[in-house]
Amino acid sequence: MTPDDSHANPQADRPAPAAGPGTSRPVPGGAPRPDSTTITDHDRARDRRLLLWLWRTEARPLAPLLLLGIVLMAIDGATMGVFSLLIQPMFDEVLIARDMGAMAWVAAAVAGVFVLRAAVLLVHKPLMTWLSERIVAGLQERLLTHLMRLDHTFYHAHPPGVLIDRVRGDTRLLGDAFITLAPALARDTVSVLALLGVTLWIDWRWTLTALIVVPLLLLPMLALQRLVRRMERRSRTTSAEASNRLDEVFHGIYTIQRNGLEGRESARYHTIVKRYILAQVRAKLGAAGIVALVELVSAVAFVVVLVVGARQIMAGDRTVGEFMAFFTAFALLTQPIRKLSALSGTVQIVLAGLERVHALMQVPPRITQPATPLAPMPAPGKAGLRFDDVHFAYGSEPVLRGFSLDAGAGQTTALVGPSGAGKSTVFTLLARLADPQAGRVLLGGQDIARLDLVGLRNMMSVVAQDSALFDETLRDNILLGVDGVDEARLRAAIEAAHVAEFLDQLPEGLETRVGPRGAALSGGQRQRVAIARAILRDRPILLLDEATSALDARSERLVQEALNRLSQGRTTLVIAHRLATVRSADRIVVMERGRVVEEGTHEALLARAGAYARLHAMQFGRDQA
Question: End-to-end distance of the chain based on CA atoms, in angstroms?
Fold first, then answer.
């Protein structure tokens, strides 16, 4: 957007495709991945690149704290091996031999293990939560910053609800990588190694006998991992569709209520949610299947070890304490193995979210700061505008077709014509919210593609038909980033835009919050705030897009007078459907289908009896009716 408003809405010239229940939107930056069940070397290499990207962009600055969290979890994992070793003297020396001295040190050792675990968890939990939230927040900020650099053609194809879910939902999945994955990998991997070491130390033959059934896990587990990844990717896409549907419902709630569309919208949302639930259930079923496989294989291993071990104890080759220590270590071993197996599903979920976030980050900004040397910014009194044979399209649908225009510095030029003629797109290109596919836009004789981007947009004040207000105070919405404004100047702008007429009605005056999108104000009040904003900015170029359309007749006359005073000495472009508001313009340009078909003064165009005269006759007849 421009520094002061979302003045040019490309959807005024071309409706964006709706995201219906069955819509599947492509992943920005590349085609959607097919629902393949085959994980190739290329897939694994891509996953490694994704994780390396996440590490470099967000995690590496926090490496010391991450390492501390991993060390703490490794300590926690090692305590399981120590505990299982204590089982042998507990049985052989305390319970069977009844050695009271052994009872003291065994009891103290067991208590020490649990106290150490408690201390580790007390430090680890808040540490990893802070790290997770910090990394996710940093990624969200990075993604938002990147998205705000993209041009209108991107937003023309990506509805707000979808992008909200991408910024909030997809990044939130990545929190699992740090609050669940990293600690669990450290703790459970060390647990497995420690417990496996204990079983090997007690009897390596028992250990090999138990582990002989492990290969049965591998192929089914790989298949279930692929299912989890595929279903999670599908659920994230459907979640974005659901967010977009909610966004459209809440923004269009009055239209829905007036036309009795509540049932229709509920049904459409139900269809989306049904698909989301199905994908989530399938993903969780796959993850649960991995854990169930571990349990089944563990049961077989227990039976085998029990038969072999019991015979050796009966024969006097092994003690009860040795068997119980082995049995305890092996029983405890299944728990971290089960968790590590379940983590494979979590890894696929995290990678699915990371894949979508990374794809958005790879969408290149089309509007960038031009290479140096920059063209010199024109002086305020020489800010004439020229469109030279400009062609522009959203996707494959052309909007401007060889559009040419000269708007003299300090003059008012009005753009009129039917809806869809490309008028709002002219404003979009002028502020470099998008660039033309062909032709040039000149300001003061300089191609705007060679001007400083911030400087270009700072030359403009905008009042749009649907001016953007934010859920801040009225004062903040009028100032909107303009610093160093004293109360006298602010009051003058408020008076000139006739904001003062309703200011006293607000509970806290200028400090009243105006609500989301300015919902606490009427349409006319919102437009007056935008006019006060433009007056306060005091820029050499003034862009008016149906600036008085939401005002009553009295307010329209007063505000139009204020705008007429504001436009004096400024290069002013006006978009208007009500021709009465542009009669006094220095030049009126009539547009049809992205081209200029007529231009001249009001009187000259009427005398020509062409397109403008027909528009005037149609409007005059409607007004009379």
Answer: 39
359 forms bridges with which residues in the sheet?
A: none
Asked if residue 619 lies in contact with residue 579, where contact means CB atoms within 8 angstroms, the answer is yes
Residue with tokens 């993209």: 150
φ, ψ for residue 48 (rounded to 5)? -65, -40
Residue 14 confidence class, pLDDT cut points 50, 70, 90: very low
If we measure between CA atoms, which residue out of 200, 184, 183 comes closest to residue 330? 200
> Who contacts 41 (Cβ-Cβ below 8 Å, separation ≥6)?
none
Tokens 């279903």 identify what position?
A: 231
At 291, is the pLDDT very low, low, confident or very high (cuts 50, 70, 90)? low
Domains of the chain, start order? 50-361 (1.20.1560.10)
**What CA–CA distance (Å, rounded) separates 237 from 244?**
11
Residue at token pair 């976030």: 357
What does the block give as tokens for 388?
């030279």
H-state helical runs in 55-99: 63-85, 87-89
Task: Report d(CA 497, CA 481) in Å as an integer.
Answer: 19
Q: What is the DSSP letter of 573?
A: E
Using CA atoms, how far apart are residues 588 and 595, in angstroms rounded to an integer? 14
**Cα separation, 251 vs 244, whole angstroms:** 11
Q: Which residues of 404-415 are buried (b: 16+ CB within 10 A; e: fewer)?
A: ebebebbbbbbb
Q: Is the dihedral of CA 328, 330, 335, 336 positive or negative?
A: positive
| CA atoms of 225 and 342, how far apart (whole Å) | 9
pLDDT of amino acid 3: 40
Q: What's the Rg (C-alpha) of the chain?
A: 34
Q: How is residue 466 written in tokens?
A: 């649907």
Per residue in 310-328, is it b (16+ CB within 10 Å) or e — as a string? eebeeeeebeebbbbbbbb
Share of the chain above pLDDT 90, in %: 9
- For residue 297, the one-letter residue type is V
CA distance 525 to 317: 92
CA 95 to chain centre: 61
Average pLDDT over residues 278-290: 74
Decide if 81 contacts 329 (C-beta within 8 A).
yes
Pairing relation of β-strands 541-545 and 460-463?
parallel
Residue whose C-alpha is closest to residue 383's, from 456, 310, 331: 456
Q: Which helix (H) or strand (E) is 45 found in, with range?
A: helix 41-54
Task: Enter the DSSP assignment of 259.
Answer: T
